[in-house]
Amino acid sequence: MKRIYLDHSATTPVDPEVAELMMKYYVEYYGNPSSVHFFGRQVKKALEEAREQVAQLIGAQPSEIIFTSGGTESDNLAIQGTVRARNNKGKHLITTAIEHHAVLDAFKYLAKNGYDLTILPVDEEGIVSVEDVSKAIRPDTILISVMHANNEVGSIQPIAEIGKIARENGVLFHVDAVQSLGKLPIDVVSMNIDLLSISSHKIYGPKGVGALYVRRGVKISPLVFGGSQERKLRSGTENAPGIIGFGKACELAGLRMEEENKKLYYLRDKLIDGILKKIPQVKLNGPLGDKRLPNNVNVSIKYVEGESLLLSLDMIGVAASSGSACTSGSLDPSHVLLAMGISHEVAHGSLRFSLGRQNTEEDIDFVLQELPKIVDRLRAMSPLYKSDASSV
Ligand SMILES: *Cc1c(COP(=O)(O)O)cnc(C)c1O
Questions:
Q1: In degrees, to the nearest 5, what angle opens at C-alpha 216 toward C-alphas 214 and 219?
Q2: Taking CB atoms and a 6 Å cutoff, what residues make up the pocket around ligand 1?
Q3: Is residue 333 within 8 Å of 348, Cβ to Cβ?
């Protein structure tokens, strides 16, 4: 059976060029980058090259890049690190209802421990209002955190506008750009971003590596103490092969972004249009056009469970994800869809396809051929569908 991977927002395969480079730093160039001898210096040099490659993709200086274990750690370092460093300046924090749990749960922990948290709503397309951000700022606000692009519905947030307001008000601005890196242009300078989280495994790099951009002059406190690596902000021997792979993945993403996006936009819109045309009672979740990530498709298929759809698709070799995938085990509907005003019932039938580098038009054609059949079969078994249909 041919397997079709349409879950690139969960993770991506490592690019062969990246994997090949990393292999050398496991078996051949294995020194500790902090060592002064040849073995260490060799790795240190490659590490600094990776820092330049990462910095270049987001318009930063290499010295502003702190390597971490991934997006989750970067989000936590940004949020908890800011709070620890700015404790005396205020206790008010602002974020949105559609953030990744790495952001939302870090803030909720702080809210339980004496901080005041404002969680901003989003509109029906999953986009936060700049005016709402502006109105929420108080004299004691110390941090605003808004993601660049949402991982579930692909909605792109007005980051540059929010950055301007944050800067004007002297409030630090953190952006989770894990999903937009390599897909949307990012310029931390013109967007007035102070802290930016990114992750390697969402852009064809290895898992367990990420970075936090910390604008020069911004003070945050470390969460991990020890050997003083990464400007004392992230102690511990660097994951050198991982970081070097991440650097390469950033370089490749920058080179390929434009061409790759053309293909992704085309396949994305073909999949969206096809699903809406071929399956009745379907709703597209999230915005259209350039307000949406080039690789994201999210639909709610009424009268079926997202989990049943996933399992049926998996049986024919298609890998997708449902709204509750991130908290697998729990079948709570997605907090993102609920924040967009979608009912529990409709949210339960949601399905996300996230496209990537290796997908072809044949992949999309196959899904468009098979998904309507799966939906028909599942709906035929649904008592809700029957009673609703007969009452029409
Ligand atoms: C995947 C993801 C994360 C977490 O990144 P990890 O590297 O897996 O820890 C954070 N934020 C968003 C938006 C993500 O999609």
A1: 65
A2: 70-72, 75, 100, 102, 147, 151, 176, 178-179, 199, 201-202, 210
A3: yes
Rounded Cα distance between 269 and 246, Å, is 29
Q: Candidates 9, 14, 151, 209: which one to mutate for ligand 1, based on the most atoms within 8 Å of Cβ?
A: 151
**Token pair 């950055």: residue:** 163
Q: Do residue 219 and residue 272 come from a single domain?
A: no
Ligand 1 centroid, distance to 282 Cα (angstroms): 28
Write down the pLDDT at residue 168.
98
Of 235, 252, 269, the one marking the end of a domain is: 252
Give the separation between CA 250 and CA 56, rounded to whole angstroms.
Answer: 8
Question: Does pTM top 0.90 for this prediction?
Answer: yes
Torsion over CA of 246, 212, 185 and 160, rounded to 10 degrees? Answer: 180
Q: For the purposes of burial, counting CB atoms within 10 Å of the CB of 16, is it exposed (0-12), middle (13-18) or buried (19 or more)?
A: exposed
> Quick one: 69 and 200 in the same domain?
yes
Q: How confident is the model at residue 324, as a pLDDT?
A: 55
pLDDT, tens only, 132-145: 999 999 999 999 99
Please count the residues of the chain: 392
Nearest CA to ligand 1 atom 6: 71
Domain boundary among 198, 231, 252: 252
- For residue 329, the model assigns a pLDDT of 54
What's the domain count of the chain? 2
Residue 87: the pLDDT is: 83
Same domain (yes/no): 20, 128: yes
Which residues 6+ apart lie within 8 Å of 55 measured at CB? 61, 62, 64, 65, 213
* Whether residue 239 is found in the same domain as residue 270: no
| Contacts for 205 with CB less than 8 Å, ≥ 6 apart | 14, 15, 18, 242, 245, 246, 248, 249, 250
Distance (angstroms) between ligand 1 centre and the Cα of 39 equals 33
Residues 93 and 219 in one domain: yes
pLDDT of residue 383: 80
Q: Which residues of the chain have pLDDT under 70?
A: 323-331, 387-392
Measured in Å, residue 202 CA sits from the centre of ligand 1 at 8
